[in-house]
Amino acid sequence: MILALETSCDDTCAAVVDGPRALSNVISSQAPLHARFGGIVPEVASRHHLELVNGVVEAALDEAGADLDDVESIAVTRRPGLIGALLVGVSTAKALAGSRRKPLAGIDHLHGHVAANFLEPEPLQPPFVCLIASGGHTLLAAVRSHDGFETLGQTLDDAAGEALDKAARLLGLGYPGGPAIERLAAGGDPEAFELPVGMTRDPGLDFSFSGLKTALVYAVADLSEPELERRRADLAAAFQSAVVGQLVAKLDRALQAGEWRAVALGGGVAANSLLRERTREVCDRHGAGLKLLPTELCTDNAAMIGSAARFVQPAPYPEYLAWDASSQ
Ligand code: KG4
Ligand code: ZN
């Protein structure tokens, strides 16, 4: 059994995994605390992690019917993320592991998102290509083995979820913006506004969302207050369509080489129905299978960190006591 902790952003998470099975996966979301600021405030996140982390670890052990002595090793997200938030998880993990002289594995958060696909009920076997789109990251990962991945392309500026959050703010919607945009877009016409799908002429697999964001700023500035009110749903639909359009276009390009037979989606944006639908179409066209995770394994969670830890050599006591976290 592995006890895993994840505190890289605004969710305080702990889980117990036993092989490919998650025995518990406790997530304490801070989203409502950050909503009034319209986005995550790093220092607020760190302070709440500090208050929540011990209770969340206890709940994860309880739910798994385990105590610390049953656990063979501990795993924690060490990079990348908000530095203060990461430090809470790393310090807690060091204390838990150090007090029992247990080994500790330091995990890359993005390896965690990939490794969510190795969990039951239907573990996916490499090779596959994984599109990860969240509030902090947007990348295409080539997964050829369980112990890591190669980045095929990534965003050059904003993450897809970050772009959706900023667009939602501009349209006067709440935080997190992705689900709010999706709800509003359901009643809008995606073709009512012509917003640019970025990077389509770029031959590589990188992403960019800042031009799209600027285009939305100008589209909004051109409208009078009552007109904006009337056309908000159309703007949301056009923006969502442009974000999803770019994600799917790059996935399509990655599949064109014909190497990949399976695709997985991860990150909070993977909850988006339009993205799921359009990804399915691309996979069908290329004859590739598509694995869709339940939402709680797409968004940040600790079961995915425990899953990655199965394939990472942990550091013995006391080596890890000198560890730092890294924002990059
Ligand atoms: O993975 P996640 O929970 O946290 C990290 O950022 O690591 O992802 C959160 C992001 C936010 O930007 C949120 O707006 C977006 O995922 N999101 C969605 C949806 N649900 C969450 N974006 C589009 N459609 C959704 N249904
Ligand atoms: Zn994440």
Q: Could you characterize the architecture of this molecule?
A:
By secondary structure, the protein is an alpha/beta fold. Helices cover 43% and strands 19% of the residues. It is built from 11 helices and 10 strands. The strands form 2 sheets. The chain has a 5-stranded mixed sheet with strand order 3-2-1-4-5, with helices on both faces. The protein has a 5-stranded mixed sheet with strand order 8-7-6-9-10, with helices on both faces. Helix 4 (109-115) packs across helix 11 (303-309) and helix 5 runs antiparallel to helix 8. The radius of gyration is 20 Å and the shape is globular. It binds 5'-O-[(R)-(carboxyoxy)(hydroxy)phosphoryl]adenosine and zinc ion. Residues 9, 134-136, 161-162, 164-165, 176-179, 182, 267-269, 271-272, 299-300 line the site of 5'-O-[(R)-(carboxyoxy)(hydroxy)phosphoryl]adenosine.
Task: Write a short abstract of this structure.
The chain has 328 residues and is an alpha/beta fold.
